[in-house]
Design a protein that fits this description.
The complex is a heterodimer of chains A (615) and B (159). Chain A has 615 residues and is α/β, with parallel strands linked by helices. Chain A is 40% helix and 14% strand. In chain A, the strands form six sheets. Chain A has a five-stranded mixed beta sheet. In chain A, strands 2-1-3-4 form a four-stranded mixed beta sheet, covered by helices on one side. A four-stranded mixed beta sheet of chain B has the order 2-1-3-4, with helices on one face. In chain B, strand 3 and strand 4 form a beta hairpin. The chains are: A alpha/beta (615), B alpha+beta (159). At the A-B interface, helix 2, strand 11, strand 15, helix 18 and helix 24 of A face helix 2, helix 4, helix 5 and helix 6 of B.
């Protein structure tokens, strides 16, 4: 890539790339996000390339970022017809090349089949999972090879930066972002423009901008998919932000568990630098700015701003009191703007298309779209991007396709460990920052973990408290000791040792933990407990009073038994049981000795006749 | 295991690569762990000396972050995802099965140094849940039956 010394040069490069691009040329794109890699998409890609070579064809195979529909990976799209194939296996490759790519014949068996109508669907955009999405931030993932800056430039990448640098003052950029109503996508939901303005006005040099990619909420992976799939969108947003506040240095703080994101971001930063889009005198202007990558050490609390700064500074990630805001004294006590990477990826859109356009999407106080990860007990696991204000019902039943095996929906957990569980009665809730907060949960980074009637709400509360106790940095006593005490009470309840008054005690400790902790980790730690008590009190009571786990999860409160009507006496469960608790003769109904049974679930997994009851 | 002199030499090279920058302490420790698979005591002391940071602070950072291990780890590192999505899909049963099969608890390494068992809070591959990452390979839709197969294969490969 040549170095571009002015905005005209950028336009020229984009035009050249576009003129070389033939939209009618055959192209095979394959999703290479983490989910699809787990399904073995890289081998499918290699096979596609080998087959194309074998058949002596001139077709590009492009490994792109995540398409979002992780449930059905590996995903492949044949262009220009945009034929959408799912669950592609290596053995399907010869037919894909010789029939679809060479002759345009569609392979029915690889198309998505709508479970409602039982009809096959040819194009991605017609699949119910995608139909109601508005993929403004995430949509380009499927066309871009994240290791090539050219793929980003050809779709107009870095035009927003050029627009800001050539025609807008820093104040103008800030006022546009303020007018757009962009709120932080990492959890807090604070208005980005206000933060930027505070930092611009603050005294101190140098100023910093930071992209928070320390996606710690379990069950949320949109930041990962953005950093891996479209790293330049994050970088472009950060450069625009740096120009607006007058920052000269930036960091992207990436979670330790995301090695591919680090590789793709590093490549993107290097190629942007080479192209004159990062570093000294960006696009030939007086503005200089550069970005470094800082890899986290696997600590959840480092998603919190002051802990994140400590981590970049090379110290243990302990939050500090924020009498003075980060916009004035952040990293190394200098003015700092920290935004989530998804927030940054929204910025180029706002600058390119304008604040009015952006503000027309979403609800009154939550503008734009949000990427959610729809996971857990849901048919269509994946990443969706929808306008703010869509109802939970539309998301879970419309896009998500409902609950597997026809089971009953129980709750959706949003906001990560700081969030809460939302019950069925609130399925028509319009999802945005404020509505989620009102029902005792929060947006968080956008994880939505769906739970069915086999998920125990007391167990879920215990799970989050165990998580938070592990991740509490230990600085504030109410968080360190209070969360531990709450976890112990929940463990007792799950073990059948709960007592009357335990729920009230949990509520009492919650107040102390929330009020007495410095950072948001402690401040919101009681949420999983309080929301489950609020909406699922009867489950707590069943554990405490009746020593019963209605969902059949808490091991101390359940017993396994074999239904003699269903058991065929095949002996599989006898074979897999680690404690020799199952006995019986061949072809005769077996029985479980509950004194030996540890409720490990091995027999349930092995039984082909659904003959094991849990009560 | 590497000799003390090797550890010291390698540590010095890593510190030099980061130009002795004190803020790069976490990155330095990450590189050391990549080189030795854990953080040897000698390396931590050498880092403190070379970077001018008290050993107590190096120790504080090394023990604060989950990514660091102060004990040697096995040839294969088994990471069980215990993120929320995997949890509701039965990750704890998979963890129990690994514990029973390898006879170790999370954070431990088995006697012949073949396997270490670790927990991870989410690997962001929720469609594959319950998911287990062994070394760099993802194993999705895990079942207890699959655990035996996978461990069996790795043991064979190790022989």
């Amino acid at each position: 890539m040549i170095k571009m010394n002015n905005t005209e040069a950028l336009r020229q490069v984009q035009d050249d790339l576009k003129s070389q691009y033939d939209p009618k040329k055959k192209l095979v794109t394959i999703c290479a996000g983490t989910g699809c890699r787990g399904y073995g998409c890289i081998k499918v890609k290699e096979e596609l390339e080998a087959e194309i070579k074998k058949q002596n064809m001139d077709v590009e195979v492009r490994a792109t970022g995540c398409f979002g529909f992780c449930e059905k990976g590996p995903l492949v799209i044949i262009h220009p017809e945009k034929i959408f194939y799912q669950q592609v296996k290596i053995k399907d490759v010869p037919d894909i090349i010789s029939k679809t790519v060479a002759q345009g014949d569609v392979l029915e068996k690889l198309l998505y089949r709508d479970p409602q109508t039982n009809e096959t669907i040819m194009k991605e955009e017609d699949v119910p999972f995608y139909k109601k999405q508005n993929r403004l931030v995430f949509g380009q993932n499927g066309m871009i090879d994240p290791t090539r800056i050219e793929d980003y430039l050809i779709i107009g990448g870095y035009s927003a930066l050029a627009k800001a640098l050539s025609g807008m003052t820093p104040e103008g950029v800030i006022s546009e972002v303020k007018k757009a109503g962009l709120r932080g996508r990492g959890g807090g939901g604070f208005l980005a423009g206000i933060k930027w303005e505070g930092s611009r006005r603050a005294h101190g040099e140098p100023k910093y901008v930071i992209g928070n990619g320390d996606e710690g909420d379990p069950g949320a992976y949109m930041d990962r998919s953005l950093m891996e799939g479209n790293p330049h969108s994050v970088i472009e947003g950060m450069i625009i932000g740096a120009y607006a506040i007058g920052a000269s240095e930036g960091y992207i703080y990436v979670r330790n568990e995301y090695p591919l994101a680090v590789i793709h971001l590093t490549m993107a930063i290097e190629s942007a630098r080479e192209a004159g889009l990062l570093g000294r005198n960006i696009l030939g202007t007086d503005f200089s700015f550069d970005i470094k990558i800082s890899k986290g050490g696997g600590a959840f609390v480092c998603g919190e701003s002051s802990a994140l700064f400590a981590s970049i500074e090379g110290r243990a990630g302990e939050p500090r009191a924020k009498y003075v805001h980060a916009v004035e004294k952040g990293l190394w006590d200098k003015p700092t703007v920290l935004n989530n990477v998804e927030t940054w990826a929204n910025v180029p859109l706002i600058i390119s298309k304008g604040a009015d356009w952006y503000a027309s999407i979403g609800t009154e106080n939550s503008k734009g779209t949000k990427i959610f990860s729809l996971v857990g007990k849901i048919n269509n696991t994946g990443l969706i991007e929808v306008p703010m204000g869509m109802t939970l019902r539309e998301i879970i039943y419309g896009m998500g396709g409902g609950i597997p095996k026809g089971r009953k929906f129980k709750a959706v957990q949003t906001g990560g460990p700081s969030g809460g569980c939302i019950p069925e009665s609130l399925l028509d809730l319009q999802v945005d920052f404020d509505r989620l907060y009102e029902v005792g949960s929060m947006m968080g980074s956008g994880g939505m973990i769906v739970m069915d009637d086999r998920s125990c709400m007391v167990d879920v509360a215990k799970y989050f408290l165990a998580f938070l106790q592990e991740e509490s940095c230990g600085k504030c006593v109410p968080c360190r000791e209070g969360v531990r005490r709450m976890r112990e009470i929940l463990e007792d309840i799950c073990a059948g040792k709960g007592e009357e008054g335990d729920v009230e005690l949990l509520e009492h400790i919650s107040t102390g933990v929330a009020d007495g902790s410095l950072c948001a980790l402690g401040g919101s730690a009681p949420n999983p407990v309080l929301s489950t008590i609020k909406y699922f009190r009867e489950e707590y009571d069943a554990h405490i009073r009746d020593h019963r786990c209605p969902a059949g999860v808490c091991k101390a409160l359940i017993t396994y038994s074999i239904d003699p009507g269903k058991c065929t006496g095949c002996g599989l469960c006898i074979k897999v049981c680690p404690t020799q608790a199952v006995s019986g003769e061949k072809k005769k109904a077996h029985a479980i000795n509950n004194d030996l049974c540890t409720r490990c679930g091995a027999c349930i997994e092995s039984c082909k006749f659904d003959a094991i009851n849990v009560k | 295991m590497s000799k003390v002199s090797d550890i010291k030499l390698k540590t010095k090279q890593i510190v030099k690569k980061h130009k002795g920058d004190k803020s790069a302490l976490i990155a330095v420790l990450q590189d050391i762990q990549e080189a030795f698979n854990y953080l040897p005591k000698e390396a931590l002391i050498a880092v403190g000396d070379a970077m001018g940071i008290p050993a107590s602070r190096v120790y504080e950072v090394a023990t604060f972050y989950n990514a660091f291990s102060l004990n040697p780890r096995g040839e294969h590192i088994v990471k069980i995802c215990v993120g929320t999505a995997c949890h509701v899909r039965g990750a704890s049963a998979i963890l129990d099965k690994f514990e029973r099969t390898l006879l170790i608890k999370p954070g431990e390494t088995n006697q012949d140094q073949k396997f270490s068992l670790e927990l991870v809070n989410c690997v962001g591959a929720c469609a594959l849940g319950p998911v287990v990452v062994i070394d760099t390979e993802y194993h999705g839709q895990m079942t207890m039956a699959k655990v035996d197969k996978i461990i069996g294969k790795l043991k064979e490969g190790a022989q």
